[in-house]
């Protein structure tokens, strides 16, 4: 599928057997969600949550699949949570990715979203599709909204987007869905800044696990 | 329109009131669901188009299109159940497929085998891992105290390549 890097498919199998330094290679079998995951300290999340403190009933958009832990965690913020599961939507391939993304969240809140969790999705979209996505996210978010994204700086990433669970205010559990790996696009902050028109980089945080956490703010 | 008869008979805790095929009702113990009523069932072979209302608990194993409104009762969408309707219930328990909005007076439970495409409004929403959900969740009535958020410990770094790991 153009625009989306071989979602849910086996393509160019790359054994992880010889790459013990990657997180996904620790899992023994596939597919489905690995029973375990790796918790990692988040540096952007506390900043994001602190920014939400003053907002009553924030509108939150999660582009990943529904996760019980995230719903429980975000409910404590008295938030209204919208779950889109964009990876599943794109993998289903019922329409070209651009059209699917343009119709993302058919009925956004009137005031727009205050926070958007893109997780690691950006690494799985080509440049053109990513630009369409970020334009759509700009349309449905309110000025000052936070956009949280993880972008790999390591050479390889899991073949499919991972699942992420908010364990507490500064810990995120990474759960690979597959133990197969693929090359990462390794976009730089400058690349992302160009692609995310309408958003400013609030901060980037380099993690030891091979990912950059990005916190963007809608202008 | 299909309307279930009013439940004016005495409560029979251990029995079911089958609409079609007799079957065991869903047996999930729900926190807060102290009131027991008879459980009606829409059997797997049944297709209901229209509004379902009443006061008994309801187990849906068939197909329902329209609206389900049992504000004081538990509505269970069984594994075989397929609902294209808004559901209003005291407790809504989904093990099957629902395309529509869910309004749970007390809580909405989405089981591992369950799938919901629609919006959920309830003071308490429980989602089991593996469940499929797409839509929004509004827990406005939830009384849970807001978590105290720890102060942000991190200092943003400039996006320079090759920096030392921070975390």
List keywords for this structure.
heterodimer, A: 219 residues, alpha/beta, 6-stranded mixed sheet, 3-stranded antiparallel sheet, 11 strands, 23% helix, B: 167 residues, mainly beta, disordered N terminus
Shape of chain B: globular
* Net shape of chain A: globular
Widest β-sheet, arrangement of strands of chain B? 6-7-9-12-10-8
- Helix/strand-derived category of chain B reads mainly beta
Describe the model:
The complex is a heterodimer of chains A (219) and B (167). Chain A has 219 residues and is α/β, with parallel strands linked by helices. Helix content of chain A is 23%, strand content 29%. In chain A, the strands form three sheets. In chain A, strands 3-2-4-5-11-10 form a six-stranded mixed sheet. A three-stranded antiparallel sheet of chain A has the order 1-8-7. Chain A is globular. About 11% of the residues of chain A have low confidence. Chain B is mostly beta strands. Chain B is built from no helices and twelve strands. The N and C termini of chain B lie far apart (60 Å). Chains A and B meet through α1, α2, β3 and β10 of A and β11 and β12 of B.
